[in-house]
Amino acid sequence: MIELKNVTHVYQDENNVTALNDINLDIEHGEFIGLVGHTGSGKSTLVQLLNGLIKPTQGKVIVKDTVLTGKKVNLKDIRRSVGLVFQYPEHQLFEETIYADIAFGPKNLGLDKDEIEVRVKEALNLVNLDYEKFKDRSPFNLSGGQQRKIALAGVLALKPDVLILDEPSAGLDPQARDQLADLLRILHQEKNMTIILISHRMEEIAYLATRVIVMHQGEVVLDGTPAEVFSHEKQLHKLALDLPQITEILHQLRAKGYALNTDIFSIQAAADEILNALRSKKKC
Amino acid sequence: MLKDITIGQYIPRNSIIHRLDARMKIIITTLMIISLFLIEGFTGFGIFFLFLIIMIFMSKLPVKKVLKGLKPILFLIMLTLVIHIFLTKGGEVLWSWKFISIESEGVFTGFFMVSRILLLILFTSTLTLTTSPLQLTDGIEYILTPLKRFGVPASELSMMMTIALRFIPTLLEEADKIMKAQMARGADFESGNIIQRAKNLIPLLVPLFISAFRRADDLALAMESRCYRGGEGRTRLHELRYHYRDFFALGTSLIIGIIVSYF
């Protein structure tokens, strides 16, 4: 689906920062990728490469058999299939009504009126906002969380095959965060979208992702299933990254001698596992 | 692409010109600009140019960077030259074809005006290149202070300028981000005719203005909660102080200014 071959990106300014250094990645259709790494590790640069907003200094980016670095590439087509939700996406709202704002993307794709309406309805439905109630309101009178939903709907209305989100839960309250996680799960499982999620919240990553990629100073240092990646506890700590709280607890219990499976990322399953371990300990 | 814009770019160097008092530099620049408009012949421009070269040399600025500052006004310079050469009449007829003619007065005035503009821009850009924006606004505040008696809000003005300068890079960064976000939604900023392009800017400008207002609001609140209340009784970390070198610079400039005005 998406392939990166020896991609290097250097920002061309006075500092000449190497944001990405010789990256090779292969992303398959239907994967849910959690992209982690602390600030300045190159995550945001990487995702901007994937829909042609910036071009790599060296190497090739291939999306759906199209080489983005080649000549005569229709970037609009790429952006139609790779949707990108930036940090604080609510800062890009600009239209007078919510309907018009969400319709901005589909309109740019050159769709007809009826199709646009269908897509706006669908997108609002996905983010759990009532179409009739919201379509004529101004996006600027909404709460921050609702604005974020509208901005997200604006990208969803493009119906991308790949959805990339750059810290979508930053600054949201716990309830909105849970709703967002549910939405991402639905998009991945029911709508069959390939999702790349950048997040600092390891719980979110562990709970949602099927594959975790850890970046550090422009390089991929760990790449694997959440269970694999989070088993490298020491290395993650060295990179100033946390483990999910659940994993942290399970790891510590195991260190104390409890026979536990540490590859568990949902609260309920972890609770069951701990109970089981405690019971079997009592018996002996 | 927006990062190419350079306004009042300051190049830090350790030179005597950099160390001059900002107030004095502003005063000298004003004096030299006045003398530039009193010059009546090319000898004056020659002396002025020599003075400028020595000054740039002393300031240790990279010459390329200084000349780069002329790029945005290149069109204006060419236009001035062409208009004067073709439209200013008088003196000998040097060349003519049907109703178009070039006369000596026109050539003289053309080059005269162009020299004036070039020197003006070069001199003022050495001021901004050798003085940090903060020092510059500080200097302006000091110079305007006597006018407070007549109701000129000197400290407010200088604070406004400081804030404006401070937020240029921030706003550029923000614009770049919004542009990318809208491009990800299929917006097109690069094609179409002028009207179409202007229309296409709406998705960029509206969020940019909104965020600028929000920032302004936040900043005002933050300043108020730290008890900011204008310039009254306010002391500063770096007091501006005149040194001998400042008076020496002023004296030299005065002499040069008077000399060139005679030519």
Helices and strands, with pairings:
The complex is a heterodimer of chains A (284) and B (263).
Chain A: E1 2-10, E2 18-27, E3 32-36, H1 43-50, E4 58-63, E5 66-67, H2 75-81, E6 82-85, H3 98-108, H4 113-126, H5 131-134, H6 144-156, E7 162-166, H7 174-189, E8 194-198, H8 202-208, E9 211-216, E10 219-224, H9 226-231, H10 233-238, H11 245-255, H12 267-283
Parallel strand pairs in A: 3-8, 3-9, 6-7, 7-8
Antiparallel strand pairs in A: 1-2, 1-4, 4-5, 9-10
Helix pairs in contact in A: 3-4, 3-6, 4-6
Chain B: H1 16-19, H2 22-38, H3 42-59, H4 63-68, H5 74-87, E1 93-97, E2 100-103, H6 104-130, H7 133-144, H8 154-184, H9 194-200, H10 202-225, H11 244-262
Antiparallel strand pairs in B: 1-2
Keywords:
heterodimer, A: 284 residues, alpha/beta, Rossmann fold, six-stranded mixed sheet, four-stranded antiparallel sheet, 20% strand, globular, B: 263 residues, mainly alpha, 2 domains, two-stranded antiparallel sheet, flat
The CATH topology label of the largest domain in chain A is Rossmann fold
CATH class of the largest domain in chain A: Alpha Beta
- Rg measurement of chain A, Å: 21 Å
Strand order of the largest sheet of chain B: 1-2
Number of domains of chain A: 2
Compressed to H and E, one letter per element, the order of chain B equals HHHHHEEHHHHHH
Query: What's the total count of β strands of chain A?
Result: 10
The protein's oligomeric status is heterodimer
Describe the structure.
- The complex is a heterodimer of chains A (284) and B (263).
- Chain A is an alpha/beta fold and 284 residues long.
- Chain A has helices at residues 43-50, 75-81, 98-108, 113-126, 131-134, 144-156, 174-189, 202-208, 226-231, 233-238, 245-255, 267-283, and strands spanning 2-10, 18-27, 32-36, 58-63, 66-67, 82-85, 162-166, 194-198, 211-216, 219-224.
- In chain A, the strands form 2 sheets. In chain A, strands 6-7-8-3-9-10 form a 6-stranded mixed β-sheet, sandwiched between helices.
- In chain A, helix 3 (98-108) packs parallel to helix 6 (144-156).
- The N and C termini of chain A lie far apart (52 Å).
- Chain B has 2 domains: 1-131 and 237-263, no CATH class; 154-232, no CATH class.
- Chain B has helices spanning 16-19, 22-38, 42-59, 63-68, 74-87, 104-130, 133-144, 154-184, 194-200, 202-225, 244-262, and strands at residues 93-97, 100-103.
- Chain B has a two-stranded antiparallel sheet with strand order 1-2.
- In chain B, helix 3 runs parallel beside helix 6.
- The longest helix of chain B is centred in the middle third of the chain and has 31 residues, at 154-184.
- The interface between A and B is medium-sized, with 23 and 18 residues.
